[in-house]
Amino acid sequence: MNVSARNLIPGTVKKVSIGMVNAEVVIEAAPGVEVVSVITKDSVERMGIKEGAKVKAMVKATSVMLVTD
């Protein structure tokens, strides 16, 4: 699969919490660095997403803001 998005974060599925409609998928991008995605329960089942699976988180945003103290 090819996509035009540049913001692809590779990682490993650490945890999948399935609800009635949606599922929360926790991806470990690096030791101690997690990305959390909420997707439909149907998508988790259709894509076969399970703990330990290698995935890429695709981030689509028109801007990324930085904050300092």
User: Kindly, what is the distance between the CA atoms of the first and last residues, rounded to a whole number of angstroms?
Assistant: 40 Å
Residue share in β-strands:
over 45%
**What number is the mean pLDDT?**
92
Largest sheet: 4 strands, antiparallel
Low-confidence stretches: none
Order of helices and strands: EEEHE
Summarize the amount of helix as a percent range. 10-25%
Commentary on this structure:
This protein is mostly beta strands. It is 10% helix and 48% strand. The protein is built from one helix and four strands, in the order βββαβ. The chain has one helix spanning 41-47, and strands at 8-18, 22-30, 33-40, 54-58. The chain has a four-stranded antiparallel sheet with strand order 3-2-1-4. Strand 1 (8-18) and strand 2 (22-30) form a beta hairpin. The relative contact order is 0.31.
